[in-house]
Amino acid sequence: SPGQLTKKYSSCSTIFIDDSTVSQPNLRSTIKCVTLAIFYHIKNRDSDRSLDIFDEKSHPLTREEVPDDYYKHDPDHKHIYRFVRTLFSAAQLTAECAIVTLVYLERLLTYAEIDICPSNWKRIVLGAILLASKVWDDQAVWNVDYCQILKDITVEDMNEMERHFLELLQFNINVPASVYAKYYFDLRSLADDNNLSFLLEPLSKERAQKLEAISRLCEDKYKDLSKAAMRRSFSADNLVGIRRSNAILS
């Protein structure tokens, strides 16, 4: 073995292929397990509580017309897997990023008190992947890059969805090593129960420290940006005499 290679991160101009491409079994098996967890969330939901920002009819991802009964048919596991695999392959995201994606997705469902269902699952998954890629892969992929993958979505829509996702999470994007470890072992158990392989190794101490540090840094950055935006909004409100409405958060 030549030893540990220096990690290179993607940017909007250059994409590096590392040891976690789709050709590697650890990424394939991790995505299968993560998408299986998403599938069970959809299948076992109690209701269809949602928000307009995630509704595919209101904010379509493609120019193809969304069927009128789009909200009635649950996607199967293969359909969810293909959608996530396409994004991870095109953006060259890692297996660890898939686990962080599931962390943010489940955190959104809890904080916002909504359900992931046929009408919103694609946009919720996309929003979680977008945020996870910026945290784990150190802002490897910009919003505009996802617009090159999903060619019919606009960068304005991506930005708006990201803003809502963060607000609904109350900007809590910190992922401690203990949380990552819980999801790691839960996914291993899910894989065993469904006869799937799960070849991803637990995080090393160094990579766990990196995840905690980057997620805290990103959390602080997003909070600072939010405060700056609120200050600008307050100034505008004072000029026109209109008070800002409170964000609807759980």
UniProtKB/TrEMBL annotation:
Instruction: Please name the Gene3D superfamilies in this protein's record.
Output: Cyclin-like
Return any one Pfam family short name: Cyclin_N
Q: Which UniProt keywords apply?
A: Cyclin
Indicate whether Transport appears among the record's keywords: no
Would the keyword Nucleotide-binding be found if you checked this record's keyword annotation?
no
Give every Cyclin-like domain span. 82-167
A molecular-function term among this protein's GO annotations: protein kinase binding
Q: Which family does it belong to?
A: Belongs to the cyclin family. Cyclin Y subfamily.
This protein's name: CCY1B protein
Lineage, opening ranks: Eukaryota, Metazoa, Chordata, Craniata, Vertebrata
Gene of this entry: Ccnyl1b
